[in-house]
Amino acid sequence: MAQTHRRCSVLFVVEDLEAYRPELTGYCYRMLGSAFEAEDAVQDTMIRAWRGLDGFEGRSALRSWLYRIATNVCLTMLDGAQRRARPMDLGPAGSGHATHPGEPRPEQVWTGPIPDQRLWPDHSDPADVIAGRESVRLAFVAALQHLAPRQRAVLILREVLAWSAQEVATLLDTSVAGVNSALQRARATLATVNPAATEPHCPEDEHQKALLSRYVQAFESYDLVALASLLHEEATLSMPPVPLWLRGPADITAWMAGTGNGCRGSRLLPVTANGLPAFGQYRPAAVGHDPWGLIVLEIADGQIVGLASFLDTDRLFSLFGLPSHVD
Length: 327
Prior knowledge:
- A six-stranded mixed β-sheet has the order 2-1-6-5-4-3, with helices on both faces.
- The chain has helices spanning 2-18, 21-32, 35-51, 53-56, 62-78, 87-90, 116-119, 126-133, 138-144, 149-160, 165-172, 176-193, 206-221, 224-229, 249-257, 313-319, and strands at 231-238, 245-247, 267-273, 276-284, 289-300, 303-310.
- The chain is of the alpha+beta class.
- Helix 10 packs across helix 12 and helix 11 (165-172) packs across helix 12 (176-193).
- It starts with a helix and ends in an 8-residue tail after the last helix.
- It folds into three domains: 1-81, Rna Polymerase Sigma Factor, Chain: A, CATH 1.10.1740.10; 138-197, Orthogonal Bundle (Arc Repressor Mutant, subunit A); 206-319, Nuclear Transport Factor 2, Chain: A, CATH 3.10.450.50.
- Helix content is 51%, strand content 14%.
């Protein structure tokens, strides 16, 4: 009986910890800018929490305790790490007539995408999903990387997760005055970065649905005139891990007609990344279509303002549950 009771208690504690995995993943992703590093950080958090349960003794709320562990894990991972960025942060726009996009750079250079499913499982409250999508937009997460790690933690906890200054001070072992000062500096830095406002993925929005349908039709038929008509005049195209990025419909379509011509005949499968509409792109192969890129769209005022095509398909397509081949 005692052994059965202990087994049940262990299962109950594991379920308690696992219930926090999605929100901790979102927190660590905002801190680290990488879905893969976020998963590693959360797994480390869970292991530390499991090992430290005997010393926990309920002195603080389980959620606060887990966030404390996760914050320490993230701060350790960020110690000495290079700031993650988007291609637009690293240099001027290139030409649509470029013959080479540049040499690929390591994964740790880039702010990467994350599947919505990792942040909000199917049973999530729709209101929470809608509210949370704004704070995982690619532009916002990339902007967060400009902050010093502790400032980043303060801003996320205070302004994204709505913790009180006292709660954050307790978590970071600092004073309320220290938290307020860090928050003020973080806000000032973000104001200089000024991440562009974009619309989250809204499956029920008829206008957005129509825009996405037109995008898929234009891309799959490779109708570059139709595609250009969907782009804002300042729209950007980036292709991590290569550094080349383009601005404006003319350069974007020139690239697609020239060096990027291999995308003709592609097929798109819809997913959702960072609270934004996204597609797995498959280029023609000898038989069927093979993975080429994960395209994340940023939309504002009924036009596409950003196309981020992430080319690390070996890891990303598995992460997003996309098939390895399309017939």
